[in-house]
Design brief:
Radius of gyration: 52 Å
Shape: rod-shaped
Oligomer: single chain
Number of helices: 10
Structural class: alpha+beta
Distance between the termini: 55 Å
Strand content: 15-25%
Mean pLDDT: 82
Helix content: 40-55%
Order of helices and strands: HHEEEHHEEEEHHHEHEEHEEHEE
């Protein structure tokens, strides 16, 4: 049961059913209250009509025995004098209890007096005598519920009480009742219908919600099952099904496939990186091992300089691989670190022979000084390997960018290879000896660092001959 309620379908069905149930109960209660109020108003109107018919006859001068009173079972009527004594009763009416109406009347006429009930009754009647002249009927009608016994059967009625003064000056009160059976029957019928219909309606709402939700979530289940299959098979070339809709589920499927494509590309790139790194490490390690083995067997043949050179190359390659791993992991420069790019350029150029510099006085940027220094060093190393006679460095600025250019007078980079040279382990001159060139990581590292700093690194033709590498870094990050 817990697992079923853990599904979206079950929760949506339960929530919809609860909301509809609350709404229906509230609406049903309002309908029942409105129906009861309407039926009570009808009973009040009926009782008031009967009572005023009797008061009209009394005000006109009819004797008690000549009053036209209806059947007691339908509309029980009693005429009481000022002392509460019945002077006339409807047909078959044996007794009547209207204390609720009288209590309301006494409370309304003497709220501030603490006397007994008889005194209050006498004061109320005296007030009626003062208010009404002989042969007059009161405009006000008092309503309430009471009981009447007709032919030994006691029932509850809705009563109307109307005061009247006869032509002889006798104050009387006519009580006429209207049955509440219609109200009770109607309310009971409506309540029964609601109690029967409510569960059926809730079952219908729950069933429809469950079916509709299941149909709406069917593509999600397809996405889930396909993702589970991809996880089990580790085949990142598979894609989840995309429904032919334009809703959130379709967007979820498209985003999932885009994520899978990016993950597949990342894994493939990682595999290629590992393979290339293994290949690059194999040669210096094998060379170093050979030299050490030869040195161990024949110390006089040990090429110590070669061993040191291979060790340095391994150290440099390991550092490059470690930096690339950090960059791939999303390492970004500190947000609050600042440095002067012009100073970095001057320090780097001063340590190299045959490099000319044309730079502005100061360019303050935000980012990692060490990483930008690494970019410049890689660019100068690359230019030094391909230049014939000279390498030139230029630093300038515009409104938004710091622009660093490194130019050599070598053979340049063919347009078809200008993007490929920034890939890892790519060397355009495949025929040259590995010891003369790098591992093919310098430019890849330089571009990754530039991108992490919000900039770009591109290559074009130099103005005369050779290649021009241009690094752009934003001045305001």
């Amino acid at each position: 049961m817990r697992r079923r309620l853990g599904s979206v379908r079950a929760r949506a069905t339960l929530a919809a059913t609860l909301v509809v149930a609350v709404a229906l109960v509230a609406a049903g209660a309002a309908v029942l209250l409105s129906l009861r109020s309407s039926l009570i108003d009808q009973a009040d109107a009926e009782a008031d009509s009967v009572a005023r018919n009797a008061t009209s006859e009394l005000a006109y001068g009819f004797a008690y025995r000549d009053l036209t009173l209806p059947d007691g079972d339908e509309n029980p009527v009693a005429v009481l004098d000022r002392k509460g004594k019945a002077v006339a009763l409807g047909e078959d009416v044996e007794a009547m209890d209207v204390t609720e109406i009288e209590s309301d009347r006494l409370n309304s006429t003497d709220n501030d007096d603490a006397g007994d009930a008889d005194d209050a009754d006498e004061r109320a009647d005296e007030q009626n005598e003062d208010d009404l002249s002989a042969g007059r009927t009161a405009d006000e009608t008092r309503y309430g519920e009471g009981t009447a016994t007709v032919e030994g059967d006691t029932k509850t009625y809705r009563f109307a009480a109307v005061d009247v003064v006869t032509k002889g000056g006798a104050p009387l009160t006519v009580y006429a009742g209207a049955p509440l059976s219609t109200e009770k029957d109607a309310v009971g019928t409506a309540l029964t219908a609601m109690l029967i219909g409510l569960p059926l309606l809730l079952l219908t709402v729950g069933g429809v919600t469950y079916v509709v939700t299941r149909r709406a979530l069917r593509p999600v289940e397809g996405i889930r099952s396909e993702m589970a299959a991809i996880t089990a098979s580790e085949d990142l070339s598979r894609r989840v099904p995309e429904p032919d809709t334009h809703d959130e589920v379709a967007r979820l499927a498209r985003t999932t496939n885009e994520t899978l494509a990016a993950l597949e590309a990342s894994v493939e790139r990682q595999r290629a990186f590992v393979a290339d790194a293994s290949h690059e490490l194999r040669s210096p390690i094998a060379s170093l091992r050979t030299q050490l083995e030869v040195g161990a067997a024949h110390p006089e043949l040990l090429d110590l300089d070669g061993a040191v050179e291979d060790t340095v190359r391994l150290q440099s390659l390991a550092a490059d691989l470690l930096l690339l791993a950090r960059l791939d992991a999303g390492e970004r420069p500190p947000a609050d670190a600042r440095f002067d790019l012009a100073e970095v350029v001057r320090e780097e150029v001063s340590s190299r022979q045959g490099v000319t510099l044309d730079a502005v006085g100061s360019v303050e940027l935000r980012g990692s000084r060490v990483q930008i220094c690494r970019v410049l060093g890689n660019l100068l190393d690359n230019a030094g390997r391909h230049a014939r006679d000279r390498v030139a460095v230029t630093l300038r600025t515009d409104a938004d960018w710091a622009i660093l250019q490194v130019t050599d007078d070598g053979s340049g980079v063919p347009p078809a290879d200008r993007d490929r040279i920034f890939e890892r382990f790519v060397r355009l001159d495949e025929s040259r000896a590995r010891d003369d060139g790098g591992a093919g990581l310098g430019l890849a590292i330089a571009r990754d660092i530039a991108v992490r700093h919000g900039g770009t690194l591109t290559v074009t033709d130099a103005p005369e001959t050779g290649a021009l590498f241009e690094l752009r870094l934003p001045r305001h990050l």
